[in-house]
Write a structure and sequence with these properties.
The complex is a heterodimer of chains A (441) and B (81).
Chain A: H1 6-9, E1 39-40, H2 60-70, H3 77-86, H4 94-103, E2 109-111, E3 117-119, H5 120-123, H6 125-129, H7 135-138, H8 147-161, E4 165-170, E5 180-182, E6 190-192, E7 195-198, E8 204-211, H9 214-217, H10 223-249, E9 254-256, H11 264-270, E10 275-276, E11 282-283, E12 291-298, E13 308-309, H12 312-319, H13 321-325, H14 357-366, H15 373-377, H16 387-398, H17 403-412
Parallel strand pairs in A: 5-7
Antiparallel strand pairs in A: 1-13, 2-3, 4-8, 6-7, 8-12, 9-12, 10-11
Chain B: H1 2-19, H2 26-51, H3 55-80
The structure holds iron/sulfur cluster (2 copies).
Residues 325-328, 330-331, 355, 360, 363, 371-374 of chain A line the site of one iron/sulfur cluster.
């Protein structure tokens, strides 16, 4: 077995440049993960500098909950939603709103329609726990195998349970929120008012991706668009809960970590699920922005994945389609990324196109729905019914400097957000199951 | 199914060029291959984009590849027969 001492795991505290793959781990063969135009790398494609890192002191979700609690009359999703339903705003009709709430039946986690905290899927944990039958309970030996065997098995289980894709990486303290710490005193991750503590043995992170149904997503920003967004989250999180049960069932520890503790984005990038795009979110070469992540922390030794490079850093310099789609003007139009965050909620120490979280949050909490227009408009969001997309993606990855032209053609071909008056067309479409094609790879 | 039909049509076109067209120069075969690929691609975009509920992409992509494909086939007819 490879050396996985604590020093190696939390390498980023000492390294000058976090974002490099940690040493002392076993890595999976990356060749089968993606088409030929996606390369594996040993460092994420975003420049990082640990010496300038500064963690945000608070979290935007916590702030918006506190604002709401201190001012119950503040504009809320509920008030704006009712106004939009009454005005018959396209994408905000009663069936659209009802579809949104139904789409997050099990997941809703964060702030509710009134701007107050809610953690839906965590309340389900008790029922979900009843389905775990550990080796101890059954009186059998726990599963043993190599890291490579474990990763292959977990990946198969995850796909069976509903994941669109999985990725494996190691925990890196650099990118954890200020309220997360390692503690030898706990046997499994514990969340309390003081923060989240997890034991040193929980070194491995599993990223679970859920697909977002594209056509409905393109109706953002609206209730209908948000129904698609929530479908992606719900799929990722319900699959995550089932996968946790699977891992416990073979005799290892596994835990979900609420989004406030671990933001999946840096780990998704480390696990090669995508690159950081202009929208300051992950863009996948396969699914564009039409995927959502859930995170599992586990002590099951796994073979890790490497970051990827499909030319997105150059592509995003000229594309700017997401920035144009943002109704809150929260995304950067600068050609080059920057080291300077735009507000108090972002990590310093990485060179990205920062988004203005405050503008995004303010828009989202007053719009009557969630948003996700940036994710839904990305040039890399494509179906798989025509070879055109495979050709243009290969061109975009290999000659990313032509992205301005590709974005222009994308608009000309009518891809991107659906015009407001066309949103209701979704209810008449001949849809695939869940609005996605599960063979899309 | 559509790929099968398109494949059969391309095969019939090639057979005509070979048996009826005498001995076309090598570049005529090149033009035929490009023209056939362009036409097949145009139909792939048309039907694929309609399945994706992207009618504008379907029409534009279809025209964008069908027109040059047809012109190339016209050149093949002129030079190869
Ligand atoms: S979610 Fe909406 S408001 Fe926020 S950055 Fe994306 S497009 Fe802008
Ligand atoms: S829409 Fe364009 S600029 Fe924005 S993330 Fe996607 S590829 Fe990058």
């Amino acid at each position: 077995m490879a050396d996985k001492s604590i020093d190696n795991i939390f390498h980023a505290d000492k390294a000058k440049n976090s974002g490099r793959i940690p040493e002392g781990f076993v890595y999976r063969d990356q060749r089968k993960r993606y088409p030929w135009w996606v390369k594996s790398t040993d460092h994420i494609t975003v420049e990082t500098d640990v010496s300038t890192i500064e963690k945000p002191t608070t979290n935007m979700i916590i702030m918006s909950v506190m604002n709401r609690m201190s001012d119950p009359d503040a504009p809320s999703q509920r008030k704006n939603l009712i106004k939009k339903i009454t005005n018959k705003t396209p994408g905000f009709n009663l069936p659209d709103a009802s579809l949104l709430f139904a789409s997050q039946t099990f997941w809703q986690s964060g702030i509710d329609i009134d701007g107050l905290p809610i953690q839906g899927y965590q309340d389900l944990r008790k029922i979900i726990d009843d389905q775990v039958h550990t080796p101890e309970e059954l009186g059998v030996e726990k599963w043993e195998g190599s890291e490579l065997e474990a990763s292959a098995m977990v990946e198969k289980a995850a796909i069976h349970l509903g994941a669109a894709q999985v990725g494996f990486t190691a925990i890196d303290l650099t990118w954890l929120g200020p309220n997360v710490s390692i503690s030898p005193d706990v046997k499994e991750p514990v969340a309390s008012r003081e923060g989240i503590r997890f034991p040193p043995s929980y070194k491995y992170i599993i990223l679970v991706a859920g697909r977002v149904p594209l056509w409905a997503a393109k109706c953002a920003p609206s209730s209908l668009g948000s129904a698609a967004d929530r479908t992606g989250y719900e799929e990722a999180h319900t699959t995550e809960e089932k996968l946790i049960n699977f891992i416990r069932g073979i005799g290892y520890g596994a835990s979900d970590i609420h989004m406030m503790g671990i933001n999946p984005i840096p780990f998704a990038v480390m696990a090669g699920m995508g690159e950081m795009g202009r929208m300051n979110r992950v863009v996948s070469p396969l699914f564009g922005g039409a995927m959502r992540f859930a995170v599992i922390l586990t002590d099951l030794p796994l073979a890790l994945d490497k970051p990827i490079d499909f030319g997105l850093q150059e592509f995003c310099r000229h594309c700017k389609k997401c920035a144009k789609a943002c109704p809150a003007n929260a995304l950067s139009y600068d050609t080059d990324p920057s080291w300077e965050p735009l507000g108090p909620y972002s990590f310093k120490g990485k060179k990205v196109w920062y988004d203005d979280c405050e503008k995004c949050g303010a828009y989202t909490s007053s719009s009557g729905s969630y948003c996700g227009a940036c994710l839904a408009s990305c040039t890399w969001n494509k179906g798989n019914k025509t070879a055109l997309h495979a050709v243009t993606k290969a061109i975009g990855a290999k000659i990313p400097s032509v992205s301005g032209f590709l974005a222009f053609m994308d608009d000309l071909f009518g891809y991107g957000l659906v015009p407001e008056e066309t949103r209701k067309k979704w209810w008449g479409l001949d849809l695939t199951v869940r609005g996605v094609d599960s063979s899309a790879k | 199914m559509r790929n099968l039909v398109l494949g059969i049509l391309v095969g019939i076109g090639g057979a005509c060029l070979y048996f009826i067209g005498g001995t076309p120069a090598w570049y005529v075969w090149g033009l035929y291959a490009l023209g056939a690929a362009s036409i097949v691609f145009s139909f792939d975009i048309l039907f694929g984009s309609l399945e994706e509920h992207e009618p504008r992409a379907a029409i534009l992509g279809f025209c964008m590849f069908l027109i040059p494909g047809t012109l190339l086939m016209g050149a093949v007819l002129k030079l190869g027969f």
